[in-house]
């Protein structure tokens, strides 16, 4: 019986950031992230 192994992407590496935010379906996620990061107070 095969074991289930969970895999996570670490977003603070170049690969992880590009994988998380660089794909077309995640365009809204990137936009929301940048808006929160650059929010004026």
What does this structure look like?
The protein is mostly helical and 41 residues long. The protein has two helices and no strands. The protein has helices spanning 14-21, 27-37. The longest helix has 11 residues, at 27-37. It starts with 13 loop residues before the first helix and ends with a helix.
Ordered list of secondary-structure elements with their pairings:
Layout: H1 14-21, H2 27-37
Uncertain segments: none
Large-scale geometry: elongated
Count of helix runs: 2
Report the mean per-residue pLDDT as an integer: 85
Count of spatially separate domains: 1
Listing every helix as H and every strand as E from the N terminus to the C terminus, the arrangement reads HH
Rg for CA atoms: 14 Å
Q: Could you name the key traits of this structure?
A:
mainly alpha
In short:
The chain is mainly alpha-helical and 41 residues long. Helix content is 46%, strand content 0%.
């Amino acid at each position: 019986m095969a074991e289930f192994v969970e895999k996570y992407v670490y977003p603070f590496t170049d690969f992880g950031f590009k994988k998380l935010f660089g794909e077309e379906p995640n365009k809204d996620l990137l936009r929301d992230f940048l808006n929160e990061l650059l929010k004026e107070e």
